[in-house]
Design goal:
This protein is α+β, with helices and mostly antiparallel strands. About 35% of the residues lie in helices and about 30% in strands.
Length: about 375
């Protein structure tokens, strides 16, 4: 299995991660080709070698752009860009991590939220570029060392704020941090969101054979080299899965018609899955067992959702592991139109399962006024 270990020696930003991927072998021309698919003029991007002490890294000089985008415009760019669905899912998830954190810190809804520094097109360049680079390099799992943060205060469009910025700390909640006595923004919200999204479950790197290294360089002059280092290699010591939380509770005093809506709320809070099924409780009463699977970063939100949305006074938690097939989503052209298809492959890289996205089947069936099953069966025959 191919893994990447991020070693954020002096912090992490989107452009440093992107530069490290290029330094490790992600072709610069491929990056530019990907970014030119955005519906806006692409600022000039020039790779430059920078030396910090004895370490040489790659820095990306990105021409200053006057293009500023709303959150809705960024979401539309990611939705419409002609890239693999898996890349788009990663880019969308990174953006939503930033949006959720900004919304929580400012105490306003996502619809009311306006980015300031992050509204620049550079944010999309970082998000889409890193997602495409991880995909290009064929990475299966991502690990990261403790994330560096500075101290003191920094100047932003909001004025002088504590360092690290509140939104960055919100994103990094639950992750290991290390603090340096530097009045510098060592880790940016975009860099934090990239780590938050790609690092899943247990963050202890296994033994690996290193195939490639990459150094992304920043421009800070400080006591430590402003370098982000990555290692890419193969490991046979991990399974294709992750460690998760299983949260359960039994309920016998809640109207059944609300259970389905509650499970939707719990999924919105970040649950991997949410199930409910009948159980017999004390005195023979029929109740419902709610069973939720969650990752570390969503655990607190999910617990809050369960206590807020249900009548329960207590929950059970246990740590568990799960095995999953490696998943790849492709957009396939059929005689009815494009549909997204999820392919599942085993540890040898062989495709052993396919799943046609129901939302696409539903949309096409409704457009053509034909039964779902008829459309599904026909499409399944076409894509085999």
């Amino acid at each position: 299995m191919k893994i990447i270990y991020i070693d954020p020696i002096f912090g992490i930003s989107g452009d440093m991660m992107l530069a490290a991927l290029i330094h490790a072998g992600y072709p610069f021309d491929e990056l530019i080709k990907t970014l030119k698919k955005m519906p806006y003029p692409l600022p000039e991007i020039t790779p430059e070698k920078i030396t910090h002490g004895i370490i040489e890294g790659l820095h990306l000089n990105i021409e200053q752009s006057h293009i500023h985008l709303t959150i809705q415009e960024m979401e539309k760019v990611i939705e419409d860009i002609d890239l693999d669905e898996g890349i788009k899912e990663d880019a969308r998830a990174i953006l939503h991590i930033i949006v959720d954190a900004e919304s929580k810190i400012h105490g306003i809804s996502k619809d009311e939220l306006h980015f300031h520094e992050l509204s620049n097109i550079d944010t999309l360049i970082d998000i889409i570029g890193v997602a495409a680079g991880i995909n290009y390099m064929g990475i299966d799992r991502v690990y990261c060392g403790p994330v560096p943060c500075g101290r003191g205060t920094i100047n932003t469009s909001h004025g002088i704020i504590p360092n690290p910025p509140p939104v960055t700390l919100e994103i990094l909640s639950g992750m290991k941090l290390v603090f340096y006595d530097e009045a510098l923004e060592l880790t940016t919200p975009t860099g934090a969101a990239i780590v938050k999204h790609f690092v899943k479950g247990k963050n202890t790197p296994p033994s690996m054979s290193i195939e490639k290294t990459g150094y992304g360089a920043g421009t800070y002059k400080a006591s430590r080299p402003d370098i982000l280092r990555i290692f890419i290699g193969e490991s046979n010591d991990i399974h294709q899965g992750d460690d998760v939380w299983v949260i359960e509770t039994d309920i016998d005093d809640m109207d059944m018609e609300y259970i389905g809506a509650v499970s939707d709320r719990i999924r919105e809070a970040g649950a991997i899955d949410c199930l409910f099924f009948p159980v017999y409780m004390k005195k023979g009463r029929l109740g419902i067992r709610l069973s939720v699977i969650a990752r570390d970063e969503h655990l607190e939100n999910i617990k809050d959702a369960i206590f807020t949305e249900t009548t329960t006074f207590g929950i059970r938690l246990r740590r568990d592991s799960r095995e999953v097939l490696k998943r790849e989503i492709k957009k396939i052209e059929t005689s009815f139109g494009p549909v997204r298809v999820k392919y599942g492959s085993n540890s040898k890289g062989d495709y052993i399962k396919i799943h046609i996205e129901f939302d696409d089947v539903k949309r096409l069936a409704e457009e053509m006024n034909i039964p779902y099953r008829t459309l599904y069966d026909t499409i399944k025959k076409e894509i085999k």
